[in-house]
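Case study B.
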Amino acid sequence: MSFGKLIERLAQLIPVLLGVSVIVFFMMALTPGDPVEIMIGDSNVTLEQEARLRSDLGLDRPPVERFFVFLKNAVSGDFGLSFYHRRPVSEVIAERLPATIELSLVALLLALFTSVPLGVLAAVWKNTFLDRLATVGSLFGVSLPGFWFGILLLMLFSVRLHILPVSGRIGYEFEVAPITHLLLIDTLLQGRFDAFANALKHIIMPAVVLGLPMAAILTRVTRTSMLEVLSQDYIIFAEAKGLSRRRILVRHALKNALIPTVTVAALQTGSLLGGNMIVETVFGWPGLGRLVVESIFLRNYPLVQAAVLLYAVTYVTLNFLADILYTVLNPRVRL
Amino acid sequence: MSGALARAAGGGKMADESPFRRNIRLFLSSRLSTVSAAVVLGFVVLAVAAPLFAPQDPNETDLLRRLQPPVWMAGGEWGYLLGCDALGRDILSRIIYGARISIFIGIFVVLMATCIGIVAGLAAGYLRGWTDVVISRLVDILLGFPYLIFAIALIAMMGPGLQNLLLALVYKEWVVPCRLVRGETLAAREVEYVEAARALGASRRHIMLREILPNILSPVIVVSTIRVAHVIILEASLSFLGLGVQPPTASWGSMVADGRSYMLESWWVSTFPGLAILLLVLAINVASQGLRDAFDPKFHD
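Model:
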């Protein structure tokens, strides 16, 4: 892909991001329920104090003007005060973000490391028991409601067998000094293997539930594209040349077969964002998803607004990357 | 042309078969597809005639039956086959009534979204120009939101409840058929029969609705059926979070959520409603895969 095309694609993102911010702003600005009244709650405040708070927050100005203020502040990472925490929204979100990133990364890795081998083997051994297992498995994977599957796992592994914790990120007895804020990495960096094992026990169930639909989709994609590659002339030629089956698969087929997998994986990473809300709620995972769900019920709108915008921007970026990745990996596609 | 091909390929008795009937026959020739379609149909019948099938009133509470186990466990009763929830309501009856919510929302949302998507997609793909720019930009912007997050944000704003849930889902769902219809229309507008209709002086409306639409309808139908499964899971997820249909109306998602507090002892409260979601969604997914295989000419060999 040429540099000019890249710039062109980047420029196309601008109207999308602008449109996304307009929607996010007006979603929250038009919400019934006065934020000032929510902030004041039951405390005794005079009418003048209320009016001053309103003008301090800029809520007395017209919506269009407020939108531009919102946009200007959003670009500099200022999303106002979280009513509930009485601290800047950006600070509260930054605190919760690493937990969500860590969970998403582990789910992504789990999905990739199960789906790629399974998809490849299902294609190589087409119509065998393993192939059918992969097909049925991926159908279940996309049909299982995550929240229910999570509860089933909890009932089995936590309630019955007592081998995995019910909620949280790590046991209370462990204090881990933050380096990357990703517990699995921080504990390893500090050589604290007991804490690592504990964090691993906490993350495994949520990561499996979050990664399952993605693994299901990726298995199907890998299988289909591997089957297509295996029927190509150059593979048949390589076979005729007498190359070993293993060499053909690894050297010739896999490289091309994985192009769609990588692209779909990048696209699906975006869908992990939505799944996070459900999974974090089920497993009491202290991440952004659960914070957003809680904030909705607390009518903590500035936080919801900031989080939705953050999700949308991440999603748009991931889709863009998937697009670029596809063009870069697949020289036949010229944008 | 495909009719002629089918005639040439099929011959004999099937010579007079319309492509649609042939596709249906192909669909029913797969046992798995037939079984799945039967399961989906079973759920629909259950939902429509819920009062006939439900052994109890789904909303009648009975504290003496609080968390009563299913019939095969000690303390179970035949009248309460799958046990009772924390308010002593019959879980089976609530699942049967819950099917109404899931199926109604799934079908209503996809139907509305498909109608909007067809109109918008036809307009964007056939008229091009500014219409296309505006519609496509709107689609791009809506695609910028993860689905669940968009719905959650909208419902947070409008408040929970059936009507807002439907709106929130339709606002996002129409994008799927719209993109599909636009793409198909772009391809179809260059085809000879459309050019011929244009040359004969047919109106734009006639060309879009009478010439193009019937020819692009089968992929739209196939995708719609898969989307119903998707919407049902979304509705259940939103209800699970407490943002969907409000109590006491039985919804599978909120029933699973209710059982979360009692999973230490009463596993049945969450398990059975979730099983119902899985069964219905799985059946729809398998059936729609069969539908795609039957209707997509690529798979006919």
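Residues 281 and 290 of chain A are 5 Å apart (CA to CA). The remaining cases will be described in the next quarterly update.
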